Amino acid sequence: MRSQSRRTMRALVASAAAGTLLAACAGAGGHGSSGDDSINVLMVNNPQMTQLQELTAEHFTEETGIEVNFTVLPENEVRDKIGQDFANQSGQYDVATISNYETPIYSANGWLQPLDEYLSSDPDYDAADILPPIQRSLTGEDGHVYAQPFYGESSFLMYRTDVFEEHGLTMPDRPTWEEVAALAAEVDGAEEDMKGICLRGLPGWGEVIAPLTTVVNTFGGTWFTADWEAALTEPEFVEATEFYVDLVREHGEAGAAQSGYAECLNNMVQGNTAMWYDATAGAGSLEAADSPVRGSIGYVPAPVEETESSGWLYTWAWGVQGASANPDAAWEFISWASGTEYEQLVGETLGWENVPAGKRASTYDNPEYQQAAGAFWEVTRDAISEADPLDPGVQERPAPGVQFVTIPEFADLGTRVSQEISAAIAGRQSVQDALEASQDMAEEIAEEHRNR
């Protein structure tokens, strides 16, 4: 991964693919001058990040004297901007939100500063408290840690317990996808304007491709074999994709081809769907104090077929640009934003269900968090612990990743394939045609890797 081709680098920098979470609107902060008392932070505009922005001046800047200038953008835009700024090492931003997809790639290219010395010299941060799967996912090929999580997530199935009870339906403790499909057919239309399930169909490697790839994994498929053969037209990949497309077309939400995380969350909150398979982070919104469905949602592990588990692993994390002139101030911000002190602040001021969880073991031992997140905290913790990026399917992989393949080209490839899949969901082409076109794209990348 260290000797990237020019084509690979261009694909990575130009990528503006959607990720696991989307929010509806963006705000932007101005850029302060680079100095010991000022850092520039570029971050995604999801709700927990904007809460952080609102709390920073009063609770971080007043204590440390470090001014934080935020630039907050939607996910597609922020990924593109981060890729360009970090690849060019312009130093415009000291800190940026990156995921466990970008971290090993960026670190291999020298775009990130290692954080090991900060972690070892900051006992109050308690690095040992970070959940092992999350910490491993933010570690580079060289064994150094290059980012720290703001929150972590896996995926699980959410369902309306009250609707299931009313109609005499039982959700298995660990459902299979076939069982979920049967339940979706049973509950579809059980309530007025209610569909059986919501699944992402919106184009983007972090939108439709994320849940679809977990289905592919557990059905026995893979994007690439261990010896770099593209496998998108293999029977297992085809079966999984046809299953997913058929399920969302027959029992999914209206306008599924343009529905992503945000749209499915809204459908679930508004009572327009009986089930939703997606990120564990969605539970906080469903159980929020003002949620109409609070207390009527059940949570079970991601459905499976041939594997024991199938939940993805994802984290929005803080990385320090290699060219940052203020790494010490950048670490002070990261230590605060990813520390237990910040979780306590959110719990006390905004409610414990809003805590950016999924990263620390101590969060799940906290009685206040357990009480607020009683419906979902154990399932979430177990899903993150069970996620295995090195072995997510039934065969050996050439690169790690559950819902993505950790190679620079995947952001562009996944986005182009997602457009084909969304077209199939919209009924504009068959799954077979979509995957044949996708196979050709994947084979070009596979050939490059075989020849390295």
What does this 3D model show about the protein?
With 452 residues, the chain is α/β, with parallel strands linked by helices. It is 43% helix and 11% strand. The chain contains 19 helices and 8 strands. It has helices at residues 6-14, 47-64, 75-88, 102-108, 116-120, 132-137, 161-166, 177-187, 209-218, 235-251, 261-269, 282-286, 327-337, 340-350, 361-365, 367-372, 377-386, 410-425, 431-450, and strands at 38-44, 67-73, 95-99, 147-153, 155-160, 275-279, 297-301, 314-320. The strands form 2 sheets. It has a 5-stranded mixed β-sheet with strand order 2-1-3-8-4. β1, α2 (47-64) and β2 form a beta-alpha-beta unit. α9 (209-218) crosses α10 (235-251) and α18 runs antiparallel to α19 (431-450). The longest helix has 20 residues, at 431-450.
> Could you tell me the number of beta strands?
8
Element pattern in H and E: HEHEHEHHHEEHHHHHEHEEHHHHHHH
The percent range for strand residues is 5-15%
Give the strand order, joined by hyphens, for the main sheet.
Answer: 2-1-3-8-4
- Whole-angstrom Rg: 21 Å
Let me know the largest β-sheet.
Answer: 5 strands, mixed
Instruction: Characterize the quaternary organization of these chains.
Output: single chain
Q: What would the average pLDDT be, to the nearest integer?
A: 91
Structural class based on helices, strands and sheet pairing: alpha/beta
The N- and C-terminal alpha carbons lie at a distance of: 10 Å
- The coarse silhouette is globular
Q: Number of helical runs?
A: 19
Helical residue percent band? 40-55%
Low-confidence stretches: 1-35
Keywords: Signal
Pfam family, one: SBP_bac_1
Protein name: Sugar ABC transporter substrate-binding protein
Organism: Streptomyces johnsoniae
